[in-house]
């Protein structure tokens, strides 16, 4: 074999090995990896009270999803396993998952058809949906009572369409963020604030004189996300989630974080 043929053969072999290695990496099982390391890297929220928020006292993330992720980790991998938390945002969580910086996402992530094209979701673990916050002395009891009322929402959310579906005569006032919208409610600029029930529960946690009313009037549950094709990881997450519900851990955590929120229907969570 002359030198030219030798180098050509060598180059072809090198490319074949590289492509094979890339294919193996692409198709590697996340579940097998977490079993070996006894660690699950969870993408979580650090700015959503009750679900996951950073404590100013010790800079640790705490919340319902944090506790649930730890319980899932121990159920899946044993009591000595570690749940490692990586802060994500709405814009980064799917990309971090695709880049394999994290193994799963549990970050107030609504299950949607569009997201299902990019990731696989677990069974729902939180009954999220549009809900209504009002002053404790308000006579508003459900979404239909919002007709001819001033309803405060945040721009870019689906709240306006949801409200108009059930209360077409409602007057919608839009704000840039939840802080502004809640400030408007406190200043009596509106009769009700409408958005996701979990977000409202977080606002209520730190503010008195208000309540949730009417339960949820849309169905937009949260799910745990994993990369497409990671069927073993998803299977074990769903199994662990079912076991946590059966042994009472799930209900205990739900009551811990949402049990004292005025007007929040804890039974809705217990049914999941």
Detail the topology: elements first, then pairings.
Layout: H1 3-26, H2 30-37, E1 39-44, E2 47-48, E3 52-54, E4 61-62, H3 64-77, E5 82-87, H4 93-98, E6 104-105, H5 113-116, E7 119-121, E8 130-135, E9 150-154, H6 159-166, E10 171-175, H7 178-186, E11 192-196, H8 197-205, E12 210-213, E13 225-227, H9 231-246, H10 249-258, H11 266-270
Parallel strand pairs: 1-5, 1-6, 9-10, 9-11
Antiparallel strand pairs: 2-3, 3-4, 7-13, 8-11, 8-12
Structure commentary:
The protein has eleven helices and 13 strands. With 272 residues, the chain is of the alpha/beta class. The strands form four sheets. A five-stranded mixed sheet has the order 10-9-11-8-12, sandwiched between helices. A three-stranded parallel sheet has the order 5-1-6. Strands 2-3-4 form a three-stranded antiparallel sheet. Strand 9 (150-154), helix 6 and strand 10 (171-175) form a beta-alpha-beta unit. Helix 3 (64-77) crosses helix 9 and helix 3 (64-77) packs antiparallel against helix 10 (249-258).
What structural keywords apply?
single chain; 272 residues; 13 strands; alpha/beta; 3-stranded parallel sheet; 42% helix
Number of helices: 11
Q: Radius of gyration from the CA trace?
A: 23 Å
Number-wise, the strands total: 13
Stretches where pLDDT is under 50 for at least 5 consecutive residues are 13-26
């Amino acid at each position: 074999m002359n030198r030219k043929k030798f180098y050509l053969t060598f180059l072809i072999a090198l490319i074949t090995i590289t492509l094979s290695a890339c294919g193996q990496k692409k198709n590697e099982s996340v579940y097998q990896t977490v079993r070996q390391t006894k660690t699950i890297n969870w993408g979580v929220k650090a700015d959503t009270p009750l679900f996951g928020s950073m404590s100013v006292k010790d800079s640790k993330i705490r919340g319902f999803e944090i506790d649930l992720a730890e319980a899932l980790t121990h159920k899946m991998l044993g009591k000595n396993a570690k749940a490692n938390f990586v802060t994500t945002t709405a814009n980064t969580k799917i990309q971090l998952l695709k880049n394999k910086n994290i193994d799963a996402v549990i970050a107030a992530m609504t299950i949607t058809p569009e997201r299902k094209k990019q990731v696989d979701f677990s069974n729902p673990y939180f009954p999220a949906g549009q809900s209504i916050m009002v002053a404790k002395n308000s006579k508003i009891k459900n979404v239909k009572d919002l007709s001819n009322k001033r309803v405060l929402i945040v721009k870019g959310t689906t709240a306006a369409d949801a409200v108009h579906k059930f209360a077409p005569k409602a007057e919608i006032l839009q704000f840039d963020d939840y802080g502004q919208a809640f400030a408007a409610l406190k200043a009596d600029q509106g009769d009700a604030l409408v958005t996701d029930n979990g977000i409202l529960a977080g606002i209520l946690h730190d503010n008195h004189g208000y309540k949730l009313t009417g339960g949820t009037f849309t169905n937009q549950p949260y799910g745990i996300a994993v990369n497409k094709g990671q069927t073993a990881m998803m299977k074990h997450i769903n199994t662990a989630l079912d076991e946590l519900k059966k042994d009472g851990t799930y209900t205990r955590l739900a009551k811990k974080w949402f049990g004292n929120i005025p007007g929040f229907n804890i039974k809705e969570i217990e049914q999941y």
